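Reviewers asked in the last cycle whether our approach scales beyond single polypeptides. To address this, we selected a multi-component target totalling 373 residues and predicted its structure end to end. The input consisted of the following lines:
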Amino acid sequence: MKNSKQSHVGRISSGALGALIITTLFLSACASRPGGIASWPVTNAEKSGFTGEVVDVLCELNGNCAENCGEGKRQLAIKTEDVGTIFVAKNLNNYSGAVDELWQFCEKQVEVSGLFTENKGVRFFQVQNMREPGNSWQKATRYAQAWAERSGKPSSLAGNWEAHDERIKEIIERDGYLGLGKEADEDYFN
Amino acid sequence: MKSTIKHAQQQSNVCSEATICSGATLASPLHLVRKIAKGVISACVLTGLLSTQSFAAGGNKVTVTGEMIDTWCYVSQIMGSSEAVTGTAHHVCAVWCAAGGIPVGLLDKETETVYMILSFEGDDTSVANEKILNLQSRELTVKGTAFELDGISYLNIDDVITDHGIVNLTHEKFGIVPGFAGP
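The resulting structure, written as C-alpha cells, was:
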C-alpha cells in the first residue's frame, strides 16, 4: 500500500517535472523566436531578420548628431556588421514610420524582423517585431500610442489616427483632397 | 562622428583665440610677429580644410527639381503602381504618411532618383516636419547636399529655389489612390 502510494506520488512528481520542462522549453522557444512576419503585398518582398545598432542617419552621414538620435524627430537606420546600414522606413501601424519604434534604442543593439521591399533603386525595411537581444519580442506598433500621447487624443482613436489628426484635417480643409484647392475638389468629386 | 565634431570645435576655438592674439601689438621684433602671424594663418587654413573634410565627407552640393513624395507607397507599390502613388491621386495618403513619420522623398524629375529628405532649410526634423508635410505632392526646385549610404540617397535641403505647386495631375488617369482617401 505504502509502495503504491509512493509510486503514485512519484508519478505525479515526474509528471509535474515533465510539464515544467516542457513549459520552460516552450517559453524559451517563444522568447528566442522572432514574432511571425506578416506578409504585406509589397514589391519584391523579402522576409528577414537581423541585429544591429540603431543610428541617426544624419549623424552617420555628416557628424550632425542629436541627443538620443533626435528623440523621434530624425530618420533612423540600423547599422549591421555584415550588410551595412539599413534604412527603416515603416512599422506595423497604418501610415506610420519606424522612428517611434526605434529612437529609444538609440546607439543600442536591437534584433528586428520584418520585410524588405525594393523598387526604383531603393531597398528599405519595414520593422514588424523587435527586441533588445535576450529580451522578449515586441510588435512594432508603438506609434499608435505615441500619437495618442502627443496629440492628446484618446488611445481608442489611434487605430485610425489619420482620420483624427488635426494637422491632416487642417491641410485637407485648406487644400482639398487633390491638393489643388476646394474648387478643384468640387469640380472633380461632384 | 561625435568626437570629430568635438575635435573640430576645439580646433576652431584655438584658432579664434590665436587670431585674437595675433592682432595684439607685441613689443617683440617684427620678424617674430610675422612668424607668429604666418603660423596662425597656416593653422587656420589647415583647420578650415580639416573641418570641411570632416563634415562634408561624401556629400555633394546639388540642385534638384522633383516632386515631394511618400516613399513607402512609391517604393512598395502597396497602394498601386509607383506612378499612381504620386501627384494629386495620392495627395491625401502622402499627407497621412508624412504626418505618420514615413520618410518624405524628393523624386528627381530627370534621374528618377529618390532622395530621402533628412533636413529642411536648416531644420533637422525629418519626421513629420510641418513644413515638409505642407509641401507633399508639390514640385520643388531645391538646393542642398546629397549623400549616399549603402544604396540609399539622402538629401539635406538648404533652400527652396522655386515651388512649382502641384503639377502632377495623376487623378485624371488613376482617380484617387487609394480609393478611400477621398471625401
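Residues 153-189 of chain A form one domain. We regard this as preliminary and will revisit it once experimental data from Aim 1 are available.
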